[in-house]
Amino acid sequence: MMNIQTVTVIGVTGTMGANVAGIFASFGDAKVYCLGRDIEKVKKTIPRIVKSVKADAIAKNLIPADFSMLEKCVAESDLVFESSKEDIKVKKEIAGQVAKTLQPHAVSCTGSSGLSITEIANCYPDRLKEHFFGVHMFNPPYSMSLCELTPTSFSDKEMQAELKEYLSKKLIRTVVEVKDSPAFLGNRIGFQFINEALRYAERFKDNGGIDYIDAILGSFTGRSMAPLVTADFVGLDVHKAIVDNIYENTHDYAHETFVLPDFVQKLIEQKKLGRKSGGGLYQRVKYENGLVRQTVLDINTGLYRDVIPYVFPFADKMKKYIAEGDYQKAFERLVNNHSLEAEICRYFLLDYIVYSLYATKEVGYTIEAADDVMATGFNWCPPLAMYQALSTVADVPTLIRENLPDVCKKVNIDELLAEVKPSKYDYRLYFKSGR
Amino acid sequence: MSKVYILGGAQTDFERNWKKEGKGMVALLKEAMADGLENASLTFDDVKVLNGDNRVACFVGNFIAEKYVDQGHLGAFLTEVDPAFYGVPSARYEAACASSSVAIDAAATKIRADEYDVAIIVGWELMKTVESRIGGDYLGRAAYYDKEGRGIDLPFPKLFGKLADETLKKYPELDEKRYMDALAKISVINYSNAKRNPLAQTRKWFMSYDQASTRDTETNPLVGGRLGVSDCSQVTDGAAVVVLCSERFLNERGYEGKPIIKGYGHRTAPMLFEKKMADNEGSEYTLPWTRQACLDAYKRAGLTVDDIDVFETHDCFTSSEYAAISAFGLTEPGHEYEAVENGLIAFDGDKPINPSGGLIGCGHPVGASGARMFLDLYKQVTGTAGAYQVNGVKNGMMLNIGGSATTNYVFIVGAEQ
After folding, report:
1. Which residue from B13, B22, B205 is facing A322, i.e. has the nearest CB?
2. A26 with B206: Cβ contact below 8 A
3. Tens digit of pLDDT for each residue in B40-84?
4. Going by C-beta distance under 8 Å and a sequence separation of 6 or more, which residues neighbour residue B314?
5. How confident is the model over A349-358, as pLDDT tens digits?
């Protein structure tokens, strides 16, 4: 096992930086230099880090530092983890600084959620390039165990294997090796789904739009949070950065589904970024008398209105069956209902399976990678488990041909589905009864 | 006497919060039963056919669903799980946290007496339906509620905190720091074992010796006397199914390599904690009836502690696992810390306790815990425990207690030869 005793986390005042520092200080039991631009801000972050793993005992492992101490901290570190702003310029600049004192044995990682790892690696001198990896964790890492490990063509294979072992055994991460491709695997699949949901919200804005689509793709379809609630949670600016990056740098069959809808662009311009800015797609209005109203953007008018408690017979039946553990009956409702809403739901779930399998061929190394990233990074029913779930009531290839005729024209479905395997994840726990 | 074979079973993922999933007891039981029967190579149709000849019965272990989910008559409730259970004899057994052990005992007795050929045991509890303080009050009914529970905030942590006090009192030569450190190490062992168990509640949680041994902090507050949160088992939703059968059924099906119940012990100590302690005065043990239940099981099995390769114990609190160490006979009473310090009970030790993670690591859905431990012994003896398999297990032993070590249940499960 790799012996990592000292770690420097750069950019520790950010959400991910703080949480990642917590993981190294707890499971890794490493001394962690918590480095940020403003040391006072770093000091205020320490209690948050302690809370993120619910352990006061790690406080002694957390040492505040600022950029003036970067070279010294790096010189002492066995592992350096950069978690700065998602901006290639900033990351390259930091890489240049890290390279100055990075020890010959040490590992250097970036927590980038989608920038080119190779481009950052190129900031290192040749002898250190091979020690550089992308290590992308998901938020919050204490409950989401996914860790996407991205080597570059320079990477030392032995070190890669050791790092993988350290991340999985010592830090208790679900490590998935992925290729250096925009947004890697989890976000490629997850944000394809979410952006397509945004596009459908625009397309069906006269049926209700945002909350209409969320009501069709709620937790009864194999996730804890509806997709557009998730977009608000992630932040629309972050969402945009991810889908723009994928749109500009990849060209797969689902290319157009990564185009950000205009109404989202407008919200971003108005600084309505989601939960962090007090509202985005949804807005919670709190009155002085304590009354809380859940409102949602009406895409047509640009105004917020009350969320509508939609009643879709197929969805209501599914929820009722799921509540009683009758999953097959729930899936039968989904498969056999002829309403527009059931059609949309089927389209999304089936395209999710197809796109996941497609993306993992491009970005991952195994078909199981798609399952691991979606289960442990998004807490969504992973694609192979979704396939298995629907297989209990129907022939999934036939369903795909019937419901995704356009996708079938662009993708060799038979070839893709030929590799389907039973999932190691239990689909039952992802299908919830509720909105 | 006829032998009682164990065909298999299943537990639910103890990480799950069924309320958050919008599911209740029906879903829990449907999933657990489907998985348990499948593991035991039985189908609902088999149950129907067996029931046609009155050869199968069900035994439900649950402590207090009346409070947590407003439901009683739990034996009959299995008819809601599947129509195959229509007409199948079924009843609920209760002994607080030892409820599913008493269900297993009743089931084994019926098989041993040659009255049924197949016995299906399901232990379950849904505890996340209420917030933890209300749940803690419900659990107070496992003690003498009027005297030890009513109006008391978190009664059980307090009772097992008292057990810690009494342990120190009983063994004056036992250094307090040494004792508290042993408790912290017990917690750490259970948490770290749970990391290998894919169905353990705390498999992603962090715990370290520093964290467990530093009590009275924001993240490790005291919950009962000198015990901290790190000394506590979890609030858990879950179910565990175990299927027992007769030799006749085993031969009909041609199964081989199925383990048997080799022995059991069942002793009831005084209900009130104070009386329990007064009662131990003539004994070297803090919990003499717990020790006696272990001795009874050894005697019935014709085995000694030397023959046992793995233990699952009732670590509802670290202080109860501590007491179990000498009750099993792993050390002399008063010297339990030795087994913690010298690695005897560690996962890679000679006598591992709770490779599953136990109640602290795997979780403690109270009515399910006895069946869950029993299932884990089955897995260990049949070499099917996966990543938490202990090497070369022939015999395993479990201790499941109800209340403040009031009901004491012990089973020894082992390979037939």
Report:
1. B22
2. yes
3. 999 999 999 999 999 999 999 999 999 999 999 999 999 999 999
4. B97, B320, B321, B324, B358, B359, B369, B373, B399, B400, B401
5. 999 999 999 9
